[in-house]
Design a protein that fits this description.
about 350 residues, alpha/beta, eight-stranded mixed beta sheet, about 40% helix, binds S-adenosylmethionine
C-alpha cells in the first residue's frame, strides 16, 4: 500500500506481515477463525494510538467488512479482494488510477456538479489573468485522462494554468497562446514553479485556428498528445486583444463557431484515438436572450469525430461579491424573468477509435 505517513507503523501495515495474516484468513476453516485474525489486525491498527493514516483507514474498513461477512465463502471473497488490492495494480490505458485501490482516490471527482468556493492559489497560481480557469479543472482532467509522462496540449494557454498543473503532476505540456506578451508572462510563471518530475513544457505564440500542431511536437520527438484542453474566449464576453485572429473578435456567433471547428479539426490530427478532449466554456446573455454558447460549441466538437462522454457543470460560489451589486442583479432577474448564472461547462469528449 502506498503510505507516505512517517509515523511508526502498526505491524498490520507492514506488507509481508499483513499478507501472511491475510493468507491465514483466506485458508481459515471457519468464520470464527477469520474473525479472530481480522480482530487481531484491527486491534493492531487501533493500538497505534494516533489517527490512522489513509491506507490504515481503508484497511480497517475492509477488515470490518470481512469480520461482518455472514458466510465463510463471502469472508474469503473479501479477503481475496483485499490481498489483490495490496499486491496487484490494475489500471486502464488512460490514467494511473489503481482500480484495485479505487477507494483511496477520494481526491478524484466523479460527480458532474462542481460547486467551488475557492480557487487553488498555491504556488504560482494566481487569479490575476482575467478569464483564467480554476487550476482544479486541468488538475482533475489530467488525473482522470492521462498517465504520468504523457503529453497535454492546451490550445488557449492564457496564463499557463494547465502547464503549471502539468508540471506538478508529471505531464509534459505544450500551450498555444495568441498574444506574445501573455505567452511570455505564462512562461515566466511556469518557470517559477518547481518542476519535480522534470517534465518538458513550452508556450508557443500562435493562432490555434491555423497553427501546425505536429511541428510543435516534432522537436520533442513526439507525434501525438494524449489530452487536449481547450478553454477559448467565450466569444466576445471578454475582449482579450485587438487582434483579428482572437476568437473573442470573431465577426459573429457563426464565425466564432466555425473557428472553433477549425481548431478542433487541427487538434484532432495530433490527439491519439480513444483519448480525451476537454472543452471549458460558458454561455452568454444578449438582449434579453440566453445564448447557449456552451452547447453550440459542444456540437462543433461532436461533429468532428468525438463522442461526448460527460458534461460537468462548474459553479463558483463566492461570498466576496458586493452585496448591493448582488441585490441589483437579483432585482433585474426578477423583473426580466431570467435566472442569474455564473456556471460554466466542462465538456469531456473521447476521440473515436
Ligand atoms: C479563456 S482564456 C484561457 C485562460 C487559460 N485557461 C488560463 O487559465 O489562463 C482564452 C485565451 O485564448 C487566447 N486566444 C484567443 N484567440 C486565440 C487563438 N486564435 N489562438 C490561440 N489563442 C487564442 C486569448 O488571448 C486568451 O489568453
Amino acid at each position: 500500500m502506498d503510505d507516505t505517513d512517517e509515523r511508526e507503523q502498526p505491524p498490520a501495515l507492514n506488507l509481508p506481515y499483513l499478507l501472511d495474516m491475510l493468507d491465514q484468513m483466506r485458508s481459515a476453516g471457519s468464520l470464527e477463525e477469520v474473525r479472530h485474525f481480522a480482530a487481531l489486525l484491527q486491534e493492531q491498527l487501533a493500538a497505534s494510538g494516533s489517527t490512522p493514516s489513509a491506507s490504515g483507514l481503508l484497511l480497517l474498513n475492509d477488515l470490518t467488512q470481512i469480520a461482518e461477512a455472514r458466510t465463510l465463502e463471502r469472508a474469503c471473497y473479501y479477503t481475496e479482494r483485499l490481498i489483490r488490492s495490496v499486491t496487484e495494480v490494475k489500471t486502464t490505458p488512460i490514467n494511473d488510477i489503481n482500480l484495485n485501490q479505487w477507494k483511496a482516490y477520494d481526491h478524484i471527482w466523479t460527480d458532474s456538479l462542481w460547486v467551488m468556493d475557492r480557487r487553488d492559489s498555491s504556488g504560482v497560481h494566481a487569479a490575476d489573468y482575467w478569464g483564467n480557469f480554476v487550476p482544479q479543472i486541468p488538475h482533475q482532467m489530467m488525473l482522470r485522462y492521462t498517465k504520468r509522462g504523457e503529453w497535454v496540449l492546451d490550445t488557449f494557454a492564457g496564463s499557463g494554468t494547465t502547464l503549471i498543473e502539468g508540471q506538478r503532476l508529471g505531464r509534459h505540456t505544450i500551450g498555444v497562446e495568441l498574444q506574445a506578451e501573455v505567452a511570455e508572462q505564462a512562461r515566466q510563471r511556469v518557470a517559477a514553479e518547481p518542476n519535480p518530475h522534470g517534465v518538458v513544457w513550452d508556450v508557443v505564440v500562435g493562432d490555434s485556428t491555423t497553427v501546425d500542431f505536429p511541428s510543435l511536437l516534432r522537436p520533442y520527438g513526439q507525434q501525438s498528445v494524449q489530452l487536449v484542453v481547450m478553454h477559448p474566449p467565450y466569444f466576445d464576453i471578454i475582449k482579450f486583444s485587438a487582434d483579428g485572429r482572437d476568437l473573442a473578435n470573431a465577426r459573429s456567433l457563426d464565425d466564432f463557431l466555425a473557428k472553433m471547428g477549425m481548431v478542433v479539426e487541427r487538434v484532432a490530427t495530433v490527439l491519439d484515438r480513444g483519448r480525451y478532449l476537454v472543452l471549458v466554456i460558458g454561455d452568454k446573455y444578449v438582449e434579453g436572450e440566453w445564448v447557449p454558447l456552451g452547447f453550440l460549441t459542444m456540437q462543433e466538437v461532436q461533429r468532428r469525430g468525438f463522442a461526448l462522454k460527460s458534461i460537468v457543470v462548474k459553479n463558483f460560489d463566492t461570498t466576496t461579491a458586493k452585496r448591493t451589486q448582488k441585490e441589483l442583479w437579483r432585482y433585474r432577474a426578477l423583473v426580466g424573468g431570467f435566472y442569474l448564472f455564473k456556471h460554466e461547462y466542462v465538456f469531456i469528449f473521447r476521440k473515436r477509435l
